Design the sequence.
C-alpha cells in the first residue's frame, strides 16, 4: 500500500529515511525505528536533521503504522467468512476454553477472527488460572495493539490485563494530531516500555503494567502447554524479550510434560523455533500459511 503525499504528510519520517540514505520503499521498520530510538537515547550527543525524536517523528511513525495495521485491517478481518479455508480460521476453530492466544501483531485481525468463528470468548488473563481451564480463551498482545490508547490507560488500563480485548483501532489522523497515542512497542531489541525505571521516570507506570502482564501471560502459557501452534511468527533474534519470556516459560515446565510444536510458515525453516523450544518432543512443519479470501480489497 502506498500513501499519496507521503513526504509532506510524514515530513519528519522522510528526514530520518534520508538520514539513513534510504527510500521509503527500501527502508525496514526495524532500521527506521532503531535509528529514532537510539537518537532519542542520546539526544545531546549527535547532530540530527529531524525534530525531537520523542515528539513529532514518533507521532508520524505510529500514524503511518496505523495506516497499514489499523482500521483497514479491521475491515478486512470482518470480511473473512467463518468457512474460509485460510490458516487463521482453521486454527481459530480448533481453540477451546483454557487455551491461550498470543498475538505479536499490531493489528486486530486474529482476535477478530477468533471472536467471529469461536463460541468461546477471548479475555486477557491476569486473573484467569494459568493451569485450570476456564470459560475463556486467554489473550495477550506482547507488542501492543493498534486498538490500545496510551492516553486512556490511566483510567482503563485494567481492561487490557483483565478484560475482553479492545477491538477498534485508533484513527491515524487523530494519532498524527496528538489526540490519540497507540501503545505499539518499538521494533527494537531494548524496549523502553519494559524498563521499570523508564516507566517511573515518564509517569507511564500503567504502560509498564499492561505490557508486563502480556508477557507474563505468554510465560504462563508456555509453562503448561502440551501443544503450541505458530502461525507465521519467525522468532527473530532481535526480539530479545520474546525469546527471554519463552525461555523462562520453558524453564518452569515439568520435566515429564511433553510438548509438540506445530508451525505454519513460508519456508518450513524451524531453526529459530528449535532454539526457542529446545526441549520440544517434536517440531512439525504444517505447511505454508494460507491467506484469507476476503470479500473486500485493501484501499
Sequence:
Amino acid at each position: 500500500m502506498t500513501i499519496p503525499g507521503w513526504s509532506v504528510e510524514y515530513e519528519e519520517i522522510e528526514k530520518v529515511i534520508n538520514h539513513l540514505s534510504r527510500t521509503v520503499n527500501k527502508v525496514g521498520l526495524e532500521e527506521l525505528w532503531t535509528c529514532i530510538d537510539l537518537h532519542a537515547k542520546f539526544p545531546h550527543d549527535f547532530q540530527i536533521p529531524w525534530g525531537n525524536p520523542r515528539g513529532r517523528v514518533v507521532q508520524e511513525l505510529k500514524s503511518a503504522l496505523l495506516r497499514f495495521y489499523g482500521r483497514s485491517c479491521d475491515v478486512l478481518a470482518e470480511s473473512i467468512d467463518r468457512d474460509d479455508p485460510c490458516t487463521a480460521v482453521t486454527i481459530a476453530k480448533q481453540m477451546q476454553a483454557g487455551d491461550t492466544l498470543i498475538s505479536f501483531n499490531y493489528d486486530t485481525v486474529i482476535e477478530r477472527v477468533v471472536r467471529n468463528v469461536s463460541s468461546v470468548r477471548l479475555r486477557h488473563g491476569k486473573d484467569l488460572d494459568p493451569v485450570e481451564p476456564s470459560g475463556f480463551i486467554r489473550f495477550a498482545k506482547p507488542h501492543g495493539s493498534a486498538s490500545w490508547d496510551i492516553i486512556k490507560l490511566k483510567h482503563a488500563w485494567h481492561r487490557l490485563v483483565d478484560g475482553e480485548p479492545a477491538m477498534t483501532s485508533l484513527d491515524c489522523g487523530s494519532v498524527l494530531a496528538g489526540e490519540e497515542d497507540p501503545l505499539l512497542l518499538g521494533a527494537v531489541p531494548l524496549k523502553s516500555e519494559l524498563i521499570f525505571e523508564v516507566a517511573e521516570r515518564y509517569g507511564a507506570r500503567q504502560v509498564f503494567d499492561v505490557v508486563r502482564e502480556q508477557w507474563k501471560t505468554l510465560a504462563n502459557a508456555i509453562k503448561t502447554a502440551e501443544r503450541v501452534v505458530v502461525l507465521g511468527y519467525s522468532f527473530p533474534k532481535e526480539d530479545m524479550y520474546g525469546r527471554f519470556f519463552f525461555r523462562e516459560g520453558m524453564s518452569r515446565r515439568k520435566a515429564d510434560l511433553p510438548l509438540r510444536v506445530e508451525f505454519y510458515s513460508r519456508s518450513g525453516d524451524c531453526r529459530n523455533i528449535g532454539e526457542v523450544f529446545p526441549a520440544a518432543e517434536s517440531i512439525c512443519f504444517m505447511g505454508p500459511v494460507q491467506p484469507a479470501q476476503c470479500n473486500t480489497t485493501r484501499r
